[in-house]
Amino acid sequence: MARRFIKRLMPDHQKVRESKAIRLFGSLLHDANLWHLNRRSASGAFAVGLFCAFIPVPFQMLLAAASAIPFRVNLPLSVGLVWVSNPITMPPMFYLCYLVGNALLAEPPQPFAFEASWEWLMHSISTIGPAFLLGCFVLGTLSSFIGYIGIRLLWRQSVVKAWRRRNP
Q1: H helix runs in the chain, sequence order
Q2: In degrees, to the nearest 5, what angle opens at C-alpha 155 toward C-alphas 149 and 157?
């Protein structure tokens, strides 16, 4: 059950391999563990993908792929999971990160008014940046841990259920 569900979510292996950004990893993509789907690779991919989804940079998919290779977890799943933070979910996710960072640093929320200028960006990095980055790290780590444990439990539950159906 868990394996079929995850396979439906995964992007096509060939499309991932042919991606221009992923192709830069070259022969590292030939490791079979990056494409195999089992409990270890799926739970690790959830951890990598969910952590990378909370990193506030425009190349999250590349970071997820670069992290999946040394951890030897399912690459398509980890790359696909960074889309948890998409243009629709990113503003509330990152605002929550900022609030969590403020709470952890015991700082009051700063007034926020967006401006498309270099001065505004530099000022924001110095005022709201530390709380925002701390919140991103904490929520990324927490979601990564919850995703890892959740997939391990879901996978185990589906295996136990299959065994019980086989041996009544």
Answers
A1: 2-9, 13-18, 20-23, 39-53, 60-71, 75-81, 90-105, 118-127, 129-166
A2: 100
> What is the distance between the alpha carbons of residues 23 and 2, in angstroms, rounded to a whole number?
29
* pTM assigned to the model: 0.79
What is the percent of the chain where pLDDT is above 70? 79
User: What pLDDT does 117 receive?
Assistant: 73
C-beta separation of 1 from 42 below 8 A: no
Handedness of CA 120, 125, 131, 134 (dihedral sign): positive
Judge whether 81 and 50 are in contact, CB under 8 Å. Answer: yes
The pLDDT value recorded for residue 80 is: 87
Condensed to tens digits (0 to 9), the pLDDT of residues 22-42 reads: 666 666 666 666 777 888 888
Whole-angstrom distance between the N-terminal and C-terminal Cα of the chain? Answer: 18
The rounded distance, in Å, linking the Cα atoms of 85 and 108 is 26
